[in-house]
Fold this protein.
Amino acid sequence: MQTYSQISLKPFNTFGIDVTAQKFVQVESVEDLKDLLKNNYASEIFVLGGGSNMLLTKNIDKTVAHINLKGIEILQESGNEVLIKAMAGESWHRFVLYCLDNGLGGLENLSLIPGNVGTSPIQNIGAYGVELKDTFEECTALNVQTLELKKFNKEECKFGYRDSVFKNAEKGKYIITDVTFRLTRNKHKLNTAYGAIGAFLEEQGIEEPDIKDISNAVIQIRQSKLPNPKELGNSGSFFKNPIVTKDLLKNIQKSYPEVPFYEVDSEHVKIPAGWLIDRAGLKGTREGDAGVHTKQALVLVNYGDASGKDILQLAEKVQQKVKDLFGVEIEPEVNIF
Ligand code: EPU
């Protein structure tokens, strides 16, 4: 395991922020990871996966451990169900394509999400009516103190909307090394209820879609709205969709009767943050190289040389304006360092 000094992290975060890592190591095996933790305090290690859900606002004075664990393996097959394991460093989308090429269903709605397999459970990634937890079986994680591997089943992960135990009680205590999914071989449970998918398939004249049709639909919808990080730095949704009380919703409806919302429970609804930011007139706003994306207001972008602080400043302005206008607090979805 080679150690590098003073490496720019620009190629390692999808926002394309140019900060420096004091030290940088490529972790190729679980043994590498254990060695690293034997020789360093866990507090001196900065774990980096696909770099797709982070905003780096300063140089990292730690050893950045880039989790490069690779491998995909079918563990078990019985009847319609297949258990498949992917190592943490596999690219999420490449894994989804691997499953589709092997006729396995369950992840097609999650096509083209940036990032790696190992970070997918942390925020329970989700899109187009499906969340990771719907097919998650278990993950293995290394305890950074005891160096023991522990398995977490679905219940232990305590998944919520863009949330899990790894963001709460177990934050910073584990590094996920692999994730196992329970997928389907034949009788797939297709999820086309999300408005944009149904409309796309209808437009294409596809009446009986298969898993590849759904994946293609998701890819095209995403490409039409969300910037490709290789062309324009971004971290997907910068904010979470806020959950508000129905009283607050009623208040907003007085001025904006068209406000979209999704029922959460008898007292709460979720409002799309993208809609709030858009109606606040901020879609397409640009300050220097930091901007609010022109096609999806939930996404902040780096037009080239924005610093993490520039993006953060813009994010704070967006939060303030949404608060002033609608009385709603929106929280970042990305991790800010
Ligand atoms: N909207 C606007 N203006 C905008 C953006 C959205 O008016 O600029 C409105 C839309 O018209 C629609 C509603 O807001 O009525 C919802 O928009 P959309 O379907 O695009 O989804 P979203 O709630 O903005 C969430 C996820 C996305 C995911 C999509 C599709 C969060 C924080 N974001 O976005 O996830 O792809 O649903 O399922 O939950 C990500 O996490 O990086 C991500 C892209």
Summary: Residues 308-326 form the longest helix (19 residues).
